[in-house]
Amino acid sequence: MKVIIIGAGKVGYSIAHLLSGENHDVVVIEQSQERQEILEENLDVQVICGSGSSTSVLEAAGVRGADMLLAVTEFDELNMVSCLLGKKYGVKTTVARVRNPEYLEVKDISFKEAMGIDLIINPERVTAIEIAQIVGHPEAMNVDYYAMGKVQMLELEIKKNSSLIGKKIRELDTSVPYNIICIERQQKILVPRGDDVLELGDHINIMARTTEMREVERMLGFHTPRVEHITILGGGRTGFYLAQILERQRPDLQIKIIEKELLRARQISQKLKHTLVIHGDGSDYQLLQEENIASSDLFIAVTDDDKINVLCSLIARNMGVKKTVCQIKRTEVIPLVEQIGIDAILNPRMLTAGVILKYVRRGDIISVTIFGDDRAEMLELLAQPGAAAINKELRHIKFPLGSVVGAVMRKEEVIIPDGNFRIMPHDRLMVFSILKSIHKTERLFLDGGKIN
Question: Fewest CB atoms less than 10 Å from the CB: which of 2, 144, 160, 321?
Fold first, then answer.
């Protein structure tokens, strides 16, 4: 597949990295000399200097033969114009990163249709939706849904005094069906086997029926606390979207937003119905004490400054907040931040890349979730007639290294499979795979050929 990416910032670089690693023909258009050099030094992609709104630059990038155009610069208008031009040149699929809510919420005008954009993605809204899911499961580090919401996956940390420490996977209670699809241990991703032993600090990703996940958690000794008070640091787009979502989902929830800029604080206060907006500096310890932040069940730091987010999350943690959620935009510091006691860390770039990826995949791939800074993915796909795995029991399928089926939906029934489960045509599969095995995993369920 030939893909043109306009903009080599954090989102653009991530997408280029993932697609070039999967042997797609990737061309990146970037105006910054510094970003061009970074791409050329680190990725196997063609880099063209210029603007995505220039027809000559687009033609030099081979737009006439492109399958997809992804416009992910920091400028909404440039992204939208680039997609418009791409469609005029015959590009099949166009994706635009659009952050300004005015383009998304104008009545009687559809910028998406008018500009020929197949997917408009707002990173702040994507991040807010992800955090809202964590609010619903505060014991989890991350929450994802599949099979139209019928399958749930939680990332849970094994903490001190957990009954799971020292137990082998095959020794765990399975009276309510679930699968542990991967373990994240000291920056490594492991696909567990029956004899693998769980350790303190492991992050286990559990997949189960959404209706049964609470019971699975109780069975494994995880406690689900009730969330009643939330403090959001940062009234920017992410914080504002999050408050809007939570007001709709939980009208009884007590929400505070701390915003440093007075004008912005006044603006969002007028738009939010049940949220208390406080004008102040979230790094001011005295302010946090006066506002009784220690009583919060969740402290969520989503300012544009990573350092402020980390600092204030640590302050809140030390004050007694039960759980901290921190937005980190610089992926290189995430491993360090994970070591200092923050409960959940979210990276908008990775979340945005995951949403975009499902438009890059073949039509039988329904959704994609990225794990561990681009090192693995969860694929939701439809098993095709004639594929190598069809009519075979899972235990008889030679899976690529680091791949496992976590759940299956057959018609309307959700199945948590064991080794005796037989794959049938059109089964909707939730498959985990490390990055280097993704192509082989896809071919196993989507192609008629054999896996080498």
Answer: 160
